[in-house]
Every structure is written in structure tokens, then in C-alpha cells.
UniProtKB/TrEMBL annotation:
Source organism phylogeny: Bacteria, Pseudomonadati, Bacteroidota, Sphingobacteriia, Sphingobacteriales
Family annotation (Pfam families): Peptidase_M57
InterPro entries per record: MetalloPept_cat_dom_sf, Peptidase_M10/M27/M57
Residues annotated as signal peptide: 1-22
Organism: Mucilaginibacter aquariorum
Protein name as catalogued: Zinc-dependent metalloprotease
Domain of life according to the entry: Bacteria
């Protein structure tokens, strides 16, 4: 959640005063050793910027790139062209990506692998929160081989932050992103993770999997602190959801950085979810 999915857990001012929403606590959320920005080509950085994502602290992760602390852009994402002109910048509203889950109504299965019991409980709690909205898109917990699989990684702090989790966006074909990674390092959630806090992080990462951007993507300082950063115009990746507010929305479940507590859907989040699903 910047990991504000950046989800900041509140150790540092930018990420630290709050928890990176989507994924990090006090560090940039990547589950791999950070690489210098210079190690990512200028062509890739331009592509990422053109898609409407921040190029600050981009990290190479496998075949993709981790941006904004907890969002994994695949090669497919980087080569896709925008199919929607409805892009808007510089207001604090709800935003989605070009790609959404298709073939509605449908149910997406979710499973976890090799994680402590509390992660399973949190996953089922997050699923229950979504299903309580009676959307055309529902989730179901299964014991294995879910369409979204939640897996663990162990990575300590780096550069003053620690990654809480990460995920990606739906495919062009309309399938939900298939994996959520959660940090099992003790410095991420402590020796005895709070189930409600885990639930809120998973709820946020599931939001990315079905196509939601950070509510404050254009200025992550809103929830993460630090210097205000506007990512500028984009041609894809930040589409305004009608009916959501044009003023600061401090309680959104998709804010880039978390406050370290149990953040769930507010009224505007529910409007956005019902509009799309």
C-alpha cells in the first residue's frame, strides 16, 4: 500500500507514519532485493510513466516490475494500449485500471499456501467483507489451487521500509490477477499478527487483483506522508469511477499507505465497487 501497496505500517514518515496500504510498512514493498533505478532501462521507465504509474523506486521482480510499493506490472501490462479515454488526474477519487474482471456474474476462488493459520482466517474475513456487498463478483475460499493464490515470502526492512504484500492487475482477457504475496518476516506484522490488520491488507491487495488503483495514486503523500508527488497525465491505468468524491477521502480501503489499523470499505468504496461489479 508504497508500500502503500504500498501499505505503510507506520514506522517512517512517508511510509512510516502510516502503514503502506497495499503492502509495505516502512519499506518499499517488493519481495526481492531492491535494484537501483538505473538498473531499469529508460525505455521501461517511460513506459511505466505513460501508463500512469509512479517511476519512483521501480524494482525488477522476476519478469515484471514492482511499482508504487505493491503493484506488480507484467510484460503484458507494459505492452497493452489504452482502450478507454476516460482518464482523469489530480483529484482524490476512486480509480480503476483499464482491465477489469469480465464474464460476470462469477465467483473467483482464493487459496493460501504454506502460511500460518491466522493468514487463512484473515483471507476468509476479507472474502466475507467483499461478499457482504452482494456484488456480481464474489469470492470463495478453497483449500488449494485457487484462481488467486496467496503465498508467503520473508524479507526484512530495506531503506527504512518493509513490504507487507504485493499483487497485480487483471489480465486483458478479464481474469483476476492470480497471486498475492504476503511478507512473513516478523518485522512486517510482528510475532503474533493481528488478524484484522492482515484482513485489511489482504482486502486491499484483492482490490488490485480486480482492477483498483490506489485512491491517492496521483499524490501518495496524502496517506504516506512525505513530499507531494503528482504522477502526471497517463494514457491508461487511472480511470475515474463516476460517483466517487472529488475531495480527500481519508478512509478508503485503497489508499496507498495504511495507518496500521483495520481499514475496510467506506461509503465511497462501496459506490465504486457497485459501479464496477
Amino acid at each position: 500500500m508504497k508500500t502503500r501497496l504500498l501499505f505503510k505500517t507506520g514506522i517512517i514518515a512517508a511510509f512510516g507514519a502510516t502503514v503502506l496500504l497495499a503492502c509495505t510498512k516502512n519499506n518499499n514493498n517488493a519481495n526481492v532485493t531492491p535494484v537501483a533505478k538505473s538498473d531499469v532501462s529508460e525505455a521501461v521507465l517511460k513506459n511505466i510513466k505513460d501508463l500512469g504509474f509512479s517511476t519512483d523506486q521501480v524494482r525488477k521482480v522476476g519478469d515484471g516490475y514492482l511499482v508504487e510499493g505493491d503493484i506488480l506490472l507484467t510484460q503484458e501490462n507494459l505492452t497493452e494500449a489504452s482502450t478507454s479515454p476516460n482518464v482523469r488526474i489530480a483529484e482524490t477519487e476512486q480509480y480503476r485500471t483499464t482491465n477489469l474482471v469480465k464474464n460476470l456474474p462469477r465467483t473467483i476462488t482464493i487459496s493460501i499456501s504454506n502460511l500460518p493459520t491466522v493468514y487463512g482466517t484473515a483471507t476468509q474475513n476479507a472474502i466475507a467483507r467483499y461478499n457482504a456487498l452482494n456484488l456480481s463478483l464474489k469470492f470463495q475460499f478453497v483449500s488449494s489451487r485457487g484462481q488467486i493464490q496467496i503465498v508467503g515470502f520473508n524479507q526484512g526492512p530495506s531503506g527504512g521500509y518493509i513490504t507487507l504484500g504485493s499483487s497485480g492487475f487483471p489480465t486483458k482477457r478479464g481474469e483476476a490477477y492470480s497471486q498475492i504475496q504476503m511478507n512473513t518476516n516478523e518485522q512486517a506484522y510482528g510475532a503474533n499478527p493481528d488478524v484484522n490488520y492482515l484482513t485489511s491488507v489482504l482486502q486491499h491487495e484483492m482490490g488490485h487483483c480486480i482492477g483498483f488503483r490506489h485512491t491517492d495514486y496521483f499524490n501518495r503523500a496524502f496517506s504516506c506522508g512525505g513530499t507531494a508527488v503528482n504522477e502526471g497525465a497517463s494514457n491508461v491505468g487511472a480511470i475515474l469511477i463516476p460517483g466517487t468524491p472529488s475531495t480527500a477521502d481519508a478512509g478508503s480501503w485503497m489508499l496507498a499507505c495504511s495507518n496500521g489499523g483495520d481499514r475496510t470499505f467506506n461509503t465511497n468504496d462501496k459506490v465504486a465497487l457497485n459501479y464496477l461489479y
